[in-house]
């Protein structure tokens, strides 16, 4: 990547698209439908039909698909989709 | 160079290591490194070094991998130090008296036996196979490291040399069945050890090799080899809790198997002689079945789950050729179970996904494997076991 669109426009990032795709799949597996996702969508406040196990699953799948694990050195705080996107978009 | 043939090598013993063939004269001609440390990656080196150490009355370290042998002290008197495979950190070294090592063998000579070595020759299980074949005057077929890749090389050697005796881990056997295809093997003995043997695998082996004796061996790190089960069924008969074979006593305490063995090393059992195996067991329909390690339990979001128990469920699903369930660290739930599935040929992926989900639907959500991945094989650790990285 030559530029980092996620810093300013999380919804335009490929990571955002990946998160939307995988969250949609996780929700579908439970027979739920994912509402439209924005950078401000919050993961575990009830707005999205996912629980902590689903979120843990998402992080594992993101690691499998991107090869990145932003949590290797410890937990980093995030509550929204945009904040999670930023963890992956920052170059190593 | 070593002189006299040791009593524990039968004159008829032959070793076939890749393209090389060894009898005792060839083994005796091998150079043995000074200092009592040998890289135990080939059975020829291991046997030559054992014979030399015995003759010199010195200790021997069978080194595996890159661990630094500098901290090792060569003792006076013949002893053999083995290194654990070190899948979960630094290898542990355990010094054995050679006669005690050999004492566990049941040396029955069988004419024309050809053993396949599936274990590392420096591992406890591998050394048992090497010494068994040597004492029985059998042929031992080994694939040198890096000569051919893993399971493919072993299957090829098994076919080419028409092996009759194979001992390996359940993970080895599942991969071996796939690598072997439809090839005929004149197997007389099929032995499983090192991991709990599951019923679907035992059934497949019995069907694939109807002429072979099928046995799974139960051993514990602390108490050594304990018993062999030869009825083709997983676990062992619950009647053994009343009366166990070979002078053993078995009981279940808090879901964990405990043993009292006349052969246990001294000082490791409690005052009444009972020793915890650390293996979780369940009684079911007249059997005692293994359900993973006590310390193999992982905490997923506050729920303790057993990756091995979940793995056994997935292995029982039709269309699954092999499966591995691992606990991966999660910043959200501590751990999470993930599954790698090897589908049988021609199986529809979507239907299989649905069947796998159905097979774990009655488990608590934390115990269901997430992130199902399809693969063409399961990577094995050096010990031939599925690596459960992250489970530590």
Largest interface, with Cβ-Cβ < 8 Å? A-B, 15 and 15 residues
Strand order, main sheet of chain B: write it out: 2-1-8-7-9-10-11-12
Quantity of strands of chain B, as a count: 22
Number of helices of chain A: 3
Helix content percent band of chain B = 10-25%
Unreliable parts of chain A: 1-7
How is this fold's topology laid out?
The complex is a heterodimer of chains A (92) and B (392).
Chain A (H helix, E strand, L loop, with lengths): L13 H16 L22 H15 L14 H9 L3
Chain B lengths: L13 E4 L2 E3 L1 H5 L8 E3 L3 H14 L2 E5 L15 E5 L9 E5 H6 L10 E4 L6 H13 L2 E4 L7 H11 L4 E4 L1 H11 L8 E4 L6 H10 L4 E8 L3 E6 L6 E2 L11 E5 L2 E5 L14 E10 L2 E7 L4 E3 L2 E3 L1 H9 L4 E11 L3 E10 L5 H11 L10 E5 L18
Parallel strand pairs in B: 1-8, 3-4, 4-5, 7-8, 7-9, 9-10, 10-11, 21-22
Antiparallel strand pairs in B: 1-2, 5-6, 11-12, 13-17, 14-15, 15-16, 16-17, 18-19, 20-21
Helix pairs in contact in B: 5-6
């Amino acid at each position: 990547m030559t530029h980092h669109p996620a810093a300013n426009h999380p919804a335009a990032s490929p990571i955002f698209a990946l998160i939307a795709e995988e969250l949609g799949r996780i929700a579908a597996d439970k027979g739920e439908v994912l509402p439209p996702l924005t950078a401000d969508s919050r993961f575990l406040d009830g707005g999205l039909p996912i629980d902590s196990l689903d979120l843990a699953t998402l992080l594992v799948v993101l690691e499998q698909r991107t090869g990145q694990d932003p949590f290797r050195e410890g937990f980093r705080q995030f509550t929204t989709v945009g904040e999670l996107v930023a963890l992956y978009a920052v170059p190593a | 160079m070593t002189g006299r043939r040791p009593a524990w090598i039968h004159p008829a013993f032959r070793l076939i290591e890749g393209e090389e063939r060894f009898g005792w004269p060839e083994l005796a001609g091998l150079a043995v490194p000074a200092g009592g440390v040998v890289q135990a990656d080939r059975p020829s080196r291991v046997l030559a070094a054992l014979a030399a150490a015995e003759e010199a009355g010195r200790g021997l370290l069978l080194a595996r991998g890159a661990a630094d042998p500098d901290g090792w002290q060569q003792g006076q008197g013949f002893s053999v130090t083995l290194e654990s495979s070190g899948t979960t950190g630094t290898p542990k070294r355990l010094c054995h008296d050679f006669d005690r090592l050999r004492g566990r063998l049941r040396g029955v000579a069988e004419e024309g036996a050809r053993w396949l070595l599936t274990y590392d020759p420096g591992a406890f299980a591998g050394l048992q196979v090497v010494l068994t074949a040597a004492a029985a005057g059998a042929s031992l077929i080994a694939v040198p490291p890096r000569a051919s890749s893993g399971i493919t090389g072993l299957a090829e050697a098994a076919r080419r040399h028409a092996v009759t005796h194979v001992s390996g881990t359940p993970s080895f056997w599942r991969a071996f069945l796939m690598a072997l295809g439809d090839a005929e093997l004149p197997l007389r003995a099929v032995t499983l050890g090192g991991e709990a043997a599951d019923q679907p695998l035992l059934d497949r082996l019995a069907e694939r090799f109807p002429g072979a004796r099928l046995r799974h061996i139960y051993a514990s790190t602390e108490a050594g080899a304990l018993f062999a089960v030869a009825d083709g069924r997983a676990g062992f008969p619950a009647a053994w809790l009343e009366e166990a074979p070979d002078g053993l006593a078995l009981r279940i305490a808090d879901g964990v198997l405990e043993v009292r063995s006349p052969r246990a090393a001294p000082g490791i059992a409690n005052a009444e002689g009972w020793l915890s195996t650390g293996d979780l067991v369940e009684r079911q329909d007249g059997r005692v079945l293994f359900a993973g390690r006590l310390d193999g339990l992982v905490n997923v979001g506050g729920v303790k789950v057993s990756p091995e128990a979940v793995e056994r469920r997935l292995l029982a699903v039709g269309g699954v050729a092999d499966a591995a369930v691992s606990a991966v660290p999660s910043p959200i739930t501590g751990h999470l179970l993930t599954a790698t599935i090897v589908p049988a040929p021609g199986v529809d992926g979507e239907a299989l996904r649905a069947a796998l989900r159905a097979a774990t639907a009655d488990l608590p959500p934390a115990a269901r494997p997430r992130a199902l991945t399809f693969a063409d094989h399961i990577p094995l650790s050096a010990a031939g076991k599925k690596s459960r990285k992250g489970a530590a």
